[in-house]
Design a protein that fits this description.
The chain is α+β, with helices and mostly antiparallel strands and 421 residues long. 24% of the residues lie in helices and 29% in strands. Belongs to the OSBP family.
Length: 421
């Protein structure tokens, strides 16, 4: 996708899923972990999961802002906003990214935003993706390991994004860690597809003990809400962050928030019974939240983050953000610089981007067969797969095993890269 206009001229409509009998594909998968099941390519969007991960960097300006702040509570607020912004692009993104092949990579350099990123598929069964982003001016490092667990529950697909995100603000000698919320795609069989995030995200500053707990509320129109307090390790409450992960985030003094909620309750807010009715399960399609819903701003609040509007005709382009539209870009001469494992070079992904569904299906099957044959050959020779850019080590902040960047990618010595395509 060399530009938004060029893409729309070439492919004004994404590949239609209207003629696909979803139930015939998924009826045997209820309660199963979907990562081991080959899904039709028509379910996909023309991006690899490694590229989806890179979308965490869309709002890198928030990291730069955190680096510039002198107060640790203010930094925590902005880091929390960054953590939420990292999942905001998933709203209405109901296409499944391509499963990365073992050894697949993706690199992204954005000089105007001051960072570069490298990611690698370090395991196939179970699927594990590792990424590392770093400031071009040595201001921060952001890295993580993700091993998503996908399950089909009849009407919905639930994704549990296991793995830890680590953000290091080098100037302040601070490290923050958190895990992403649960994600659910509703109405897989019947009705309009829609996505919600839910669960608790705890962000910990390992240097100061500051903690921020974000509660992504589930069900219907309440599924986009989040609000929670930030506190020091001695439990003193400082600020409350509130808003919607699809829209914006605000911060306000804890006492102001509490008094506002009390006044709202006296005035007659939404009852618990109404909320339960909104979230009720049934045989019908799950109601999709109202897209026009907005956040009521409490007086004295500070805006932390606001989502970037989607580009025109986004609904015809897998609901991509402007950032996502650029991820398959190939500048002149770029192909010669990329690692041969970069997902922009995947033939099935390229075929789907060009609107060639049959070609994408044929190439996907060929690549999967090639990967199985390589795995069989390694087993026969009693060889272990060797990752190229990441190694399992102990995360110094969580104490847990993690895949950490071993360096060297941007020196561009790709002579020993595996032939995966």
């Amino acid at each position: 996708m060399n530009s938004e206009e060029e893409f729309y001229d070439a492919e004004t409509d994404m590949i239609s899923r209207n003629n696909l009998n979803m139930w015939s594909v998924l009826k045997k998968c209820i309660g199963m972990e979907l990562s081991k099941i080959a899904m039709p390519v028509v379910f996909n969007e023309p991006l690899s999961f490694l590229q989806r991960i890179s979308e965490y960097m869309e709002h890198t300006h928030l990291i730069h802002k955190a680096c510039s702040l002198s107060d640790s509570i203010e930094r925590m607020q902005v880091v929390a906003a960054f953590a939420v912004s990292a999942v905001a692009s998933q709203w209405e993104r109901t296409g499944k990214p391509f499963n990365p092949l073992l050894g697949e990579t993706f690199e992204l350099t954005r000089e105007e935003d001051g960072y570069r990123l490298i990611s690698e598929q370090v395991s196939h069964h179970p699927p594990v993706s590792a990424f590392h982003a770093e400031s071009l001016k040595q201001e921060f490092e952001f890295h993580g390991t993700i091993y998503p667990k996908l399950k089909f529950w009849g009407k919905s697909v639930e994704a549990e994004p296991k793995g830890t995100m680590t953000l290091e603000l080098l100037k302040h000698k601070e490290a923050y860690t958190w895990t992403n919320p649960m994600c659910c795609v509703h109405n897989i069989i019947l009705g309009k597809l829609w996505i919600e995030q839910y669960g608790t995200v705890e962000i910990l500053n390992h240097s100061t003990g500051d903690k921020c707990v974000l509660n992504f509320k589930p069900c219907g129109m309440f599924g986009k809400e989040l609000s929670r307090r930030m506190q020091r390790i001695h439990k003193k409450k400082h600020r409350v962050i509130y808003g919607k992960w699809t829209e914006c985030m605000y911060s306000v003094d804890s006492k102001v928030y509490d008094s506002n909620k009390k006044a709202e309750k006296k005035a007659g807010g939404i009852s618990k019974k109404q909320k339960q009715e909104t979230c009720a399960e049934g045989d019908e399609a799950d109601d999709m939240p109202d897209l026009q819903e907005t956040v009521t701003v409490i007086p004295g609040s500070a805006l932390l983050w606001k989502i970037t509007p989607r580009p025109p005709h986004s609904e015809k382009m897998y609901n991509f953000t402007s950032f996502a539209l650029t991820l398959n870009e190939m500048e002149p001469g770029m192909e010669g610089l990329l690692a041969p494992t970069d997902c922009r070079l995947r033939p099935d992904l390229k075929a789907m981007e060009d609107g060639d569904l049959d070609g994408a299906m044929t190439e996907k099957e060929r690549l999967e067969d090639k990967q199985r044959a390589a795995r069989k050959e390694r087993s026969k020779e009693e060889e272990e797969w060797s990752t190229r850019w990441f190694q399992t080590k102990t995360n110094p902040y969580t104490g847990a095993e993690d895949w950490l960047y071993s360096g060297g990618y941007f020196e561009r010595n790709f002579v020993d890269s595996p032939n995966i395509y």
